[in-house]
Records
---
Amino acid sequence: MTLVGSSKAGAMAVETTGFEPPSGGSETGPRGVQAEGELPVGQAAEPTVSIVIPAKNEARNLPHVLQKLPEDCELILVDGNSTDDTIAVAQSLRPDITIVNQTRGGKGNALACGFAASKGDFIVMIDADGSNDPGEIPRFIDALRRGAHFAKGSRFVSGGGSDDITFIRRIGNFWLNKIVNVLYGTNYTDLCYGYNAFRRECLDAMRLPATDLRGEDGAMLWGDGFEVETLINVRIAKEGLRVTEIPSFETARHFGASNLNAISDGIRVLRTIHSERKGLKRKVVRERKAARNAAEATWSEADGALLQLGEEFG
Ligand SMILES: Nc1nc2c(ncn2[C@@H]2O[C@H](COP(=O)(O)OP(=O)(O)OP(=O)(O)O)[C@@H](O)[C@H]2O)c(=O)[nH]1
Ligand SMILES: [Mg+2]
């Protein structure tokens, strides 16, 4: 698969006109906060794409991922001190891959290290366990090309789904998602999902913990764990960036065991949601909700009018 068609390797053409949700995607999150109009995509006319892959003992799963990734992208695998052949397998499958060693523990630190090493104008984050379909990447890129700052994978919009999520995780994700939507005025449908893509400018909004800091006795810092997706989503919302949700289907990991603990990681997510509220103005949340309701009302009015037209002339 290539992302650029006939354009030069490592780059693709970008429309920098205003925002329109891509086909199969839906606009969500705070709206109308960011100034409308042209969105800068680095300095390049044809932005480049980096794919960041956190991997901890995923040697057996990597063939299902790396062989399906586009050729015309920068690939960065962030190794979590794997004790299997993760690095060797990655290098044999994709000799062009860059291997990065993470500086602390956890998936969040792995992503921060991968983002810091990346050079692309667009950055895709995808798991190494084979549960995210690389074939969906063009949908994410398309949303960014159409003006979204952040293209957020969702298993819970039409066209998405999961063979992997357990009952308890589904319930936890649902309620955590709901809390974020109420507190931050967003319209997310899948808070804790790690398959996303974004414009490089989003890194400033994410403010992930610096990769060169050392935790006490090598401990993880806040944001280094599985709370990272929530941290990213909340900070993107706080900055009022444009988010488009992309339907995504998650399959079960092919081999190996999960690194996530639904209870302890769920608590980290909850604490993140709470601690990120500092400095958030209620007025901003209210304005975002009002803007969203107004947009929804306009859509349903337009829908009604179209239906009526259809009945009259159809
Ligand atoms: N580098 C690095 N990668 C990690 C770490 N923890 C998890 N990952 C990777 O992050 C991705 C998601 O982790 P998973 O363990 O699959 O978590 P999950 O998807 O919630 O769990 P499952 O549904 O059971 O697959 C996988 O590619 C992991 O290899 C870590 O500490 N360091
Ligand atoms: Mg997984």
---
Amino acid sequence: MPIYDFTCKCGNSLINELVNSHNTTMFCNKCNGIMQKKISLFANHTYPKEGITLKHVAKEPVTFHSRREMKAYATKHNLILGALE
Ligand SMILES: [Zn+2]
């Protein structure tokens, strides 16, 4: 299951929320608005030797071995990756 960060325009946020699918809509528990989804980068986790594979950034799974590699990919593909901010 994918893991995302969610943010709401009211300022509320959910970090590393496990959801059933990439189409899941999260509603804010404070203002009941629809929360904006960001791809979680596992900010507090170290990168395993085999890398971290993100299945939902492209048609094919993409494996990253460093934060720099992931950031380069995000820039190239114009992705919003939550933990980079
Ligand atoms: Zn809200």
---
Amino acid sequence: MPVSPPRAAAFEILLRIDATDAYASELLHSLRFSKLSSADRGLLTELVMGALRWRGVIDQAIAKHSAQPLGKFDREVLTALRLGAYQLLFLDRIPAHAAVNESVELVKQARKGSAAGMVNAILRKIAKGPRDRSDISHPDWLVDRWTQNYGSEIARKICDYNNTAPRQAVRISTIQSNVGTAAPGCPRAEGPIDKGIEANSEPNRAVLDGQPGAAVPTWSLDDLRADGICLVPGNLLRNALTVKSGDITHSEAFRERRLIIQDEASQLVALLVGKGKAFLDCCAAPGGKTRIIAEQNPDSTIMAMELHPHRAALLKKLVMSDNVRVIAADARQFPLDKKFDRVLVDAPCSGTGTLARNPEIKWRLKAEDILRLQGYQLEILAAAMNHVAPGGRLIYSTCSLEPEENERVIEKALAVNAEFRLVDCRDELRMLKERHELMIDNIESLLSGAHLRTIPGVHPTDGFFAAILEKK
Ligand SMILES: C[S@@+](CC[C@H](N)C(=O)[O-])C[C@H]1O[C@@H](n2cnc3c(N)ncnc32)[C@H](O)[C@@H]1O
């Protein structure tokens, strides 16, 4: 019996994620699965992300009906069981026989035929049992941490947010956009949002709406709408939009990299970097923040550094601004003796602020990783501080919710370097508000002391932290 393409692809992706450190979002968008129909792509995403988000609930159900502990199953068998159980427990429109039979078939095709009978029996029992989805499906140690650091109400909000598919945010050019005044709902082609998006398309300079300097539109919301994509204004930023419906990754604008998917909190961090002449972006790939810095500072030079050559190559492809120079190097051993007036350290981190998008992280991460990461972050930060010009600023950020990777890193770095002072992010946010870049009224809700702090579920964004240090 053949297995349907989305289930076969989901099985392959879930196996890869289990066996390697690959990310679901990257595999889902890889060329290998680009030929799937739009409906099949939708089901594939649902199967992979759902099975990862709800693994806690799914594993409990499997364990309840299995004679052997989950750790004893072959990877292929457990993956087929999880895939089948997810459909049975969470998806209403999939007939139980399809979920069960295709998982059995996947096991056979993976040459684990001896387990087919057991997979069939366990899934049939799950199909007949109650649909108990009450578990929050996060490792206890993470929930305990968040409860301790943020309180039980917020910890619950974080888990709930992580368990739902977040809306995608996209960034549009700063040129001529006026998203904040757009009517709610899917915007009309002639609305101000469209102009903002159209203006994003480089490179031909011309006059748009009587204003010199804007770019000739080569695509618009009409193009996206024809592809079934509906965008609405963002939640925090004037130049952000959120995808209300449709698959933006299959639009021409996305394929041609004129439209970038980027969480609004990540966009906000890039805006905090501010204005300057010489920029260093220490941990730059894939380049979401580099792109905004370049766009905000067209007359400046930006050095974008990235440790891994393949990621540096990706950055080069994604950020095509003339004023960006990409180098593959370790930020801890910066190869040039040069000072910059703005330095961004968007540090490698646990990513616990991004679990709605990257649910695999919550099952991979170990409690002991947090302090190991702190050591690495401190090494990068200390090296980067050596390259800030007098009077210049360093912005340190992570997408982690853990204070050890955030406040503690800043405290430790400042304790051994008296040349820097902490700048209150409040002032920068106020400035962004005055410039109508930041659209929300309650700036205080974005702050934790002097730092920027977004929390998934409290804010409709990923969880980001940022601190600004200024060299005296
Ligand atoms: C959080 S991501 C950066 C995201 C990026 N700033 C953006 O907005 O798209 C951190 C990046 O730092 C890179 N990295 C890790 N260790 C590094 C090091 N020692 N030097 C430079 N880059 C490093 C990672 O490969 C990863 O691409």
---
Amino acid sequence: MPALSEARAVKAAPRDEAARGVRLEIDRLTKVFGEDADRPFEALRPTSATIEPGEFVSVVGPSGCGKSTLMLMVAGLLQPTGGAVKVDGTVLRGPMTDVGIAFQDHLLLDFRTAMENVLLQGVIRRLPMAPVQERARVLFERLGLANAADRYPHQLSGGMRQRVSLARALVLGPPVLLMDEPFGALDALTRLQVRYDLEQLWMSDRPTVLFITHSVEEAVGLSDRVLVMSPSPGDVVEELRIDLPRPRPLTLGAEPALARHARRIYDHFDRLGVIHRDGAPLHGR
Ligand SMILES: Nc1ncnc2c1ncn2[C@@H]1O[C@H](COP(=O)(O)OP(=O)(O)OP(=O)(O)O)[C@@H](O)[C@H]1O
Ligand SMILES: [Mg+2]
């Protein structure tokens, strides 16, 4: 696996040659919480999607529509009410292994330093540690964490803890990355930096990525496809293909095609009634 610093020079290779990731199928997945209770709650309507090996797919949707619920089921950490997740054609029957996970709640172990939290991924799998340590060192540097390696989670800021959680997801270069708002606690500039790093990493390693974000700009900047979810109980109501070369500019204004895609997503939200604005126009008059 190339170090992140090497990844900078690597151009996106044609899809089929370079893809290392697995094929993920989400097959009519549904979730009802409290099925046996008096008031069951439907969190996710039947949802299907296929993510091809090495494809980067984002999910956007209003708060509470079921994005994290969907992600937890894809990771095999939450039992679906109906439907199935298939990894390379095989139905997932427990927690996914060989996956990098960066979720909304970055669950770091309090009694381990930032670096120990990241290296634990290799320790658990009994891997030779020298390459894991080197990769972790490069990631810490790229993510602006070099001085944080020996600190404990309670000694880190929220944004730093989230970056440690990202480093943990990326350290083994897994074939699948499941990311749920992984940049949510980052300040605006770090967020751009980490997004750039993720794009570079994806271009060199080509994992299959399922990425949940509230940021339309991030979704169109990073993805091959964007899935748009309806308000709760959510399902996928639109799908946009973003066929633009990489690396892509970090701001929408720099690339009219990106801005057009973002506008299409906002228009979907407008039609779905997600944005309440008392007659104010969504786009400039
Ligand atoms: N364990 C649970 N028990 C009962 N209801 C739940 C549970 N987990 C989630 N929900 C409900 O399911 C719905 C979807 O939650 P989910 O966390 O998937 O939303 P989300 O789309 O990720 O929202 P956000 O963008 O705010 O993160 C919400 O109404 C939430 O309250
Ligand atoms: Mg969520």
